[in-house]
Amino acid sequence: MTPSPFKLALSVDVDEWFHSRRWVDGHQGRDIPDLAATCRRLYGQDRPAGEVIGPTLALLDLFGRYHCRCTFFLLGEVAEWYPQLVVAIAERGHEIACHGMHHVDMTILGPDRFARDLARARDLLASLTGAPPVGFRGPNLVFEPWATAVLEDLGFVYDSTVCASRSIGGKYKGWANAPTHPYRPSYDTIATPGDARLVELPIPAFPVLKLAAGSGIMTRVIGFRWTMTALTHAIRSGHTVFYFHPWEVGPRPHPRGHRLRNAVFLRHTGEWMMGAVERLLQRFHDRIVPARTLAEEAIDAQAAARSSVSAPAMRAQGVERVISPGP
How many domains does the chain have? Predict the structure, then answer.
């Protein structure tokens, strides 16, 4: 049997554990948090204690052993707190992508604040790595239709926010029928193919059931087989994506809030999850590429499909290769 030519973009959202407050303490993205107040409450100081550093460095070592290049979606505020961590990730040959400035639903920010914050995060990451990021993932996997044009205006080439899942806990509304492989979205809705220049790299759901599967959270809560089944199914017919967080492979956090919700949400953090990531590397190591590679291939495939169009017309339509080779 001929091996599948399709690839897996293994990605890491570099958040501190408290950035997951949307699930951990029941806040459903209703407000913009006061980070200094949050850190004083948790750490007795105005900034975090660096809990994300150790797990991220451990992941860099793990990826290095399997010779894999992955994508790290970084918050601007994390880059401000730990600039050397951003540099270390880039120096290992991994793609630096953007996760916004703060871990806040863009719904709350609105178009103007979102654009200002995103530009700030983009410029900060560029100053640390020497090149602006071309990829974006929305915090909490929330995406508003107006964000597509904002991302394009700021030079972003791809997004990886959509999860082709039925709605869970108020998330993924209207996304159950989204494409499961890279596509260009509509300006009206990110989950429908259209004529945007932006490329969407969707996160897979479990087949038939259409419930989220391509994330560390679902791996830990439901089980490794759930994720492996979804990824194996998805990669048979196209490129796919998996993401998780450094805090998931580190020491178990101790958040406040509802005890049962915390127990479920934090199930299998630490060594179990690190082992699950390594099992994914063992299974897919020869297919793992940075997310930008999938976006490049989507752009090239569209250009090839329009090969009968003259080169000037192609450039006018924005279908030429627009991403320079990365590390």
Answer: 1
